[in-house]
């Protein structure tokens, strides 16, 4: 527990006028609705690189922004390898931002085309299923009519 208190004290002492330049792992987990295990996993995959204070993880604004990007990219189905590639393009000081933007444009163009193709296939399948469904309903209805008339 002393280690956690030491890390909390370090984080608190490095906040800039309440703007929160440093964050503890529990704080990020709470703010983003992720587990400790998830953050450690992202760290193991090289997506996050928190500082260590007495063995405790301390996250910067950059780590926080990266986590937001990771979660957003995961939500739209991006694999972790692509997310890492995108984050790595940024560089240490944003020098790769144009490369990131080009990467996102290429990736989203491809994803949009794939989804539009899937949607066209789904629409065609739905239309075919509706025809089959209507045909079966009509056949069933025609079978019921003679039975009613015979009674």
What does this structure look like?
The protein has 6 helices and 3 strands, in the order αβααββααα. The chain has 151 residues and is mostly helical. The chain folds into 2 domains: 78 residues, Orthogonal Bundle (Multidrug-efflux Transporter Regulator, Chain: A, Domain 2); 62 residues. The protein has a 3-stranded antiparallel beta sheet with strand order 1-3-2. A hairpin with a 2-residue loop joins strand 2 and strand 3. The longest helix has 54 residues. The protein starts with a helix and ends with a helix. About 3% of the residues have low confidence.
Number of domain modules: 2
Largest sheet: 3 strands, antiparallel
Cα-atom radius of gyration: 27 Å
Structural class: mainly alpha
What is the architecture of the largest domain at the second tier of CATH?
A: Orthogonal Bundle
| Annotated CATH topology of the largest domain | Multidrug-efflux Transporter Regulator, Chain: A, Domain 2
Low-confidence stretches: 15-19
Q: How many helix segments?
A: 6
Strand content: 5-15%
Strand order of the largest sheet: 1-3-2
- Would you tell me the overall average pLDDT? 87
- From the N-terminal CA to the C-terminal CA, the straight-line distance is 84 Å
User: Helix coverage percent of residues?
Assistant: over 70%
Which CATH first-tier class of the largest domain would you pick? Mainly Alpha
Gross morphology: elongated
* Element-level helix/strand string: HEHHEEHHH
């Amino acid at each position: 527990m002393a280690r956690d208190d030491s890390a909390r004290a370090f984080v608190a002492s490095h906040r800039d006028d309440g703007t929160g330049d440093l964050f503890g792992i529990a704080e990020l987990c709470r703010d983003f609705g992720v587990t400790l295990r998830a953050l450690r996993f992202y760290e193991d995959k090289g997506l996050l690189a928190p500082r260590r204070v007495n063995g405790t993880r301390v996250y910067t604004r950059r780590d926080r922004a990266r986590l937001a990007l990771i979660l957003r990219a995961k939500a739209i189905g991006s694999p972790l390898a692509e997310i890492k590639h995108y984050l790595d393009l940024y560089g240490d000081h944003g020098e790769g931002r144009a490369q990131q933007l080009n990467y996102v444009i290429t990736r989203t163009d491809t994803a949009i085309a794939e989804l539009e193709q899937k949607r066209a296939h789904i629409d065609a399948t739905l239309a075919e299923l509706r025809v089959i469904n209507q045909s079966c309903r009509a056949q069933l209805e025609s079978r019921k009519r003679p039975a009613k008339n015979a009674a």
